[in-house]
Amino acid sequence: MEKALARSEGLKARCSLDAETAEELSDIIVGRFIAEFAHLNSFLCYASIRSEVRTDKLIKRLFQMGREVYLPRVVAGDIEAVRYTGEDGLVSGAFGVREPAGSAYDGFLDAVVVPGTAFDRNCMRTGYGKGYYDRLLKKSRTGVAVGLAFECQVVDDICAEPHDVPCEMLITEKYIYRRNS
Length: 181
Hints:
27% helix, three-stranded mixed sheet, single chain, eight-stranded mixed sheet, alpha/beta, 4 helices
């Protein structure tokens, strides 16, 4: 499926979920993520907006567990990781997304939690079309890239372009998909 069509279908499906259902499904997805990755130390998590899988509880839970949690900050068309120090340390950034106000971190990240508008079962994704996460994953020193999505956002196949970087894993409320498995 062409990326534009996958994006459109994924967004439509995601937006069709009522707020209560989206919150319940997000809780399941977060629980699956914690069960899979609680042993890791450092995480870059997106701050959810609109109808994305809610990451607020994931961020708070990892922080309470004493893990290093970073949130993305958009600077000059790229994402940089900035340490999360609690809700009081957040400001409104690019696109109205909450982001930390601290200094950029350039060390290794054990896991990057990746948003998307649609994913396929082989963990290829499409976002909003700006390529932020593709560039981040290509140049950064990162461990596992994990997509979070509602099952309704999963399509049969996304036609990848040379610059696209897939996730190694996709977690939905129903399944955990692993790349090339």
